[in-house]
Fold this sequence. Notes:
Blueprint: H1 9-19, H2 33-47, H3 62-85, H4 97-125, H5 132-138, H6 140-157, H7 162-174, E1 177-178, E2 183-184, E3 189-191, E4 197-198, E5 203-204, E6 209-211, E7 215-217, E8 238-239, E9 244-245, E10 250-252, E11 257-258, E12 263-264, E13 269-270, E14 279-280
Parallel strand pairs: 1-4, 2-5, 3-6, 4-7, 5-8, 6-9, 7-10, 8-11, 9-12, 10-13, 12-14
Amino acid sequence: xxxxPNWHLAELLASYQKHGGFNHNDVHNMxxxxxxxxxxxxxxxxxxxxxxxxxxxxxxxxxxxxxERLFGVVRRLQEEVRKSVRIGDPKRPTGKTExxxxxxxxxxxxxxxxxxxxxxxxxxxxxxxxxxEEIILSYPCIEAISIQRLAHRLHLAGAPIIxxxxxxxxxxxxxxxxxxxxxxxxxxxxxxGTGVVIGETCTIGNxxxxxxxxTLGARSFVKDENGDLVKGGKRHPDVCDNVTIYPNSTILxxxxxxxxxxxxxxxxxxxxxxxxxxxxVYEEKQLSLxxxxxxxxxxxxxxxxxxxx
Length: 309
């Protein structure tokens, strides 16, 4: 090492002191991103035995494998939660870790029951889905919703940071960004999913379906007298039961409520509430189709026409 050029080592070390961003175990001992990512992988194995494995699991070995996996996940997650509750004083016991972990493990069966409703919603909503197994194996929304539902239970139990790390892990894999604070009802389906954003204080009812590019976000950010953002507060919309939101729509604001049984069309921008049983669309100019080969000639495509392949 001494024979290598300096490569400005001193300047790099000085930047750690000046700008921070250094996980110093005398002060912080932050949770590990790599460990949390692996825990998410293992949690998916617990939720869907055999679907996230190299091979199927036999009925005879299910009890032993589940016990080993549950013990391993709890042990490793407990260590990351312990780090998160001790941030700022890593050597001080808080007494918070064990209650958080008990609450989390108690919730695992109910999370599986909720996920079954999400799978049914996907199967019932998507004509291209040929089996429920296909949905578990290949639909990004199931992975994103699974991790969010688990992270939400940790969030409710009082675990700092870890729930957000979990949902951001799922976000990086699926393109679906659901904050762990968001409350999701049963039978939730995100079709395609890429670019979906669901904010921290959203509440989503039962049997809600949304498409790619939908944002359920904040309308504005309140600042205090010093110009700093005021943290917390209701900032994101509520979506009631049986609502469908089509691609690339944006709905903003903590006071915005989308009434039950409503449909929000594609590319809609909303910052106001919508009563139940509403259809919200942009009224656009009539679409015209022209034959590129015949200059200016307008033609129509009938319902019986099809492409010749």
